[in-house]
Amino acid sequence: MRLQAEGLAIGYPGGAVGHDLALAVGPGDILCLLGPNGCGKTTLLRTLLGLLPPLAGGVSLGGERLERLSRAEIARRAAYVPQAHAPPFPFTALEIVLMGRTARLPPFGQPGRADRAAALAALTRLGIGDLAARDYSQLSGGQRQLVLIARALAQEAPLIVMDEPTASLDFGNQARVLAEIAALAGAARGDGRAVVLTTHDPDQAFALNAQVVLMKAGRIVARGAPENALTSAALSEVYGVPVVVERTQSGRAVCAPTLARQSAPSITSEALTIT
Ligand SMILES: Nc1ncnc2c1ncn2[C@@H]1O[C@H](COP(=O)(O)OP(=O)(O)OP(=O)(O)O)[C@@H](O)[C@H]1O
User: Which residues are in the ABC transporter domain (predicted)?
Assistant: First the structure.
C-alpha cells in the first residue's frame, strides 16, 4: 500500500504547524519521523491518516486521494497506533484489540471466533497474552502501548502508522517492538507492510535501517538514509545540543548528546559572602 503526500501544509483552525511536507512509502519501507517536541510529527501523522484535513496539498493512499475514501476504507488500508491513553470506559485488553478487526467486518457484523483468535494471536505475538482479560484502563502505560500495537497487528492493514511506539516501553519491550516493526516491513523480502513511525531516538532509525525524515518547526530539514540524514551536524542543529554519531565495534551507529560541563558557576563565592 503506497502512501504519498505532496505540498502538504498541516495544522489546526488556529494556525498552520507545518509547510511544504512531502513523503512517500510503499510495501517493505520503514519511514522514521524525527524532530524536537512540538515540531509537528503527530499533526503530520494525523493528517496522513485523514484524521485532520490538510491546509494545503494532498495525501493519497493506494493511489486514491484520502478525501475520496470512507473511514472504513482508510481503516482497511492503514492501522494507527496513537500514543497510549486511557479510555473513559473499562474495556478489556482483548476488546481493545478486537476493535482493530471492526473494519474487516460487514456492516453491523459482530466479531466472530476467527477475529477473537486473531486478536489473541496479536497479544501473544507481543508477549502479553496474559493481559487479555485485564481492564485496559488499569494497565501500565507500557502495557497499554503494547495493546495498541497488538490492535494494529490484528487489523492486518498493509500500512501501519505508529506514534512513538516505544515511548513508554522498557528496554526489552523496546527491542521486541523494533524487531516486530522490522519483521512487519519484511525488508529483506520487499513484500512487507509499509510502516511510518515517530521516535525521539535516532538510534532506532539506524537499527531499523529506515528512511529518515528529520523535521524542525514544521519543515523537513533532512531526509534519506540514516547515514546521510542523521549526521552529527544535522542532529546538533535540530535538537540544539551538541550530538556525536559514533560506530560501535560491531558497526552499529550510536547517537549521543555530549554532556558538556558547565564552564563557570553563575554565582561567584564572593557574591555569596555575607558581609
Ligand atoms: N489540537 C490542537 N489544536 C491546536 N494546536 C495543537 C493541537 N495539537 C497540537 N497542537 C500544536 O501543534 C504543534 C505541533 O504539535 P505535535 O503534537 O504535532 O508535535 P510533535 O512533534 O508530535 O511533538 P512531541 O514530540 O512533543 O509529541 C504544537 O505547537 C502543538 O502545541
Answer: 3-242
Distance 165 CA to ligand 1 centre (A): 17
Let me know if residue 247 belongs to a domain.
Answer: no
* Ligand 1 probe mutation, 17, 168, 215, most atoms within 8 A of CB: 17
Q: Which residue has the cell 516505544?
A: 166
Q: How many domains are contained in the chain?
A: 1
Average pLDDT, the chain: 90
Checking if the pLDDT of 88 tops 70, the result is no
CA of 167 to the centre of ligand 1 (A): 16
Strand partners of residue 12: 15
Residue 190: the pLDDT is: 56
- Residue 101: which CATH number? 3.40.50.300
What is the spatial distance between Cα 275 and Cα 271, in angstroms, rounded to a whole number?
Answer: 10
The best mutation among 12, 21, 39, 43 to test binding of ligand 1, ranked by most ligand atoms within 8 Å of the C-beta, falls on 43
User: What is the ipTM for the molecules in this complex?
Assistant: 0.99
Using the predicted structure, report yes or no on whether residue 266 has a pLDDT greater than 80.
no
Assigned domain for 270 exists: no
pLDDT digits (tens, 9 = 90+) for 128-163: 999 999 999 999 999 999 999 999 999 999 999 999
Residue 211: give the domain boundaries.
Answer: 3-229
pLDDT tens digits along 109-136: 788 899 999 999 999 999 999 999 999 9
Indicate whether 244 belongs to any domain. Answer: no
User: Does a structural domain hold residue 192?
Assistant: yes
Please name the helix (run of DSSP H) or strand (run of DSSP E) that holds residue 11, with its range, or none.
strand 3-12
Local structure of 168: helix, strand or coil: coil
